[in-house]
Amino acid sequence: MHRGHDHDHDSGGGASHPAIAGVGHNQVNAPRPAQWQVLHGDPKPGGSEPCGTVTDLDLVEAAFVEGFLAASDPTSFLRLARVPFRVNALDGATLSLLRVEVDSVADVGTVTPHLGGDTFRYDPLPARMVSRRRRLRFIYFDGTRLRPLGLAEVMAFVPG
């Protein structure tokens, strides 16, 4: 018995080569969770998220991009996703949605500043270190200029 629960702490590594505990409590071969949707200790019952916030926004954005690109009717998809076509900004301007941009970005190199910061070192990344991602922007027009907004900014306009 250990702190109110009974289980075997021997992880199979033996005394001379003990195995390191993995994900969970002493679970060496347990599958790893991809990510947590709601943090432990959420104060609201049922693990609901507070109004106006989204857990794992990067995953929500990735799912949005995937659905938007596959949608046969992008306008209806935006309506289902509750993306406002016209909205009043905090500065009082009326914003009108013109387009949704999805960019494919790949980081293929890195720069490191030398001591003093006047020069830098450039290194191309090996294939296994290249990072790929998609960037989502909503382009609104305020009457005088274009305003690119991210998903979090657009979601802030939608009433909870």
Give a concise summary.
By secondary structure, the protein is α+β, with helices and mostly antiparallel strands. It is 18% helix and 26% strand.
Q: Order of SSEs, N→C?
A: HHEEEEEEH
Largest sheet features: 4 strands, antiparallel
Mean pLDDT, all residues: 78
Structural class: alpha+beta
Any idea what the shape is? Answer: extended
Strand composition percent: 25-35%
Measured distance between first and last alpha carbons: 46 Å
So how many helices?
3
CA radius of gyration is 24 Å
Number of strands: 6
Helix content: 10-25%
Keywords:
single chain, 160 residues, alpha+beta, two-stranded antiparallel sheet, 3 helices, 18% helix, 26% strand, extended
Q: Any overview of this molecule?
A:
The chain is an alpha+beta fold. The protein has a domain at 55-157. 18% of the residues lie in helices and 26% in strands. Strand 5 (131-141) and strand 6 (146-149) form a beta hairpin. It is extended.
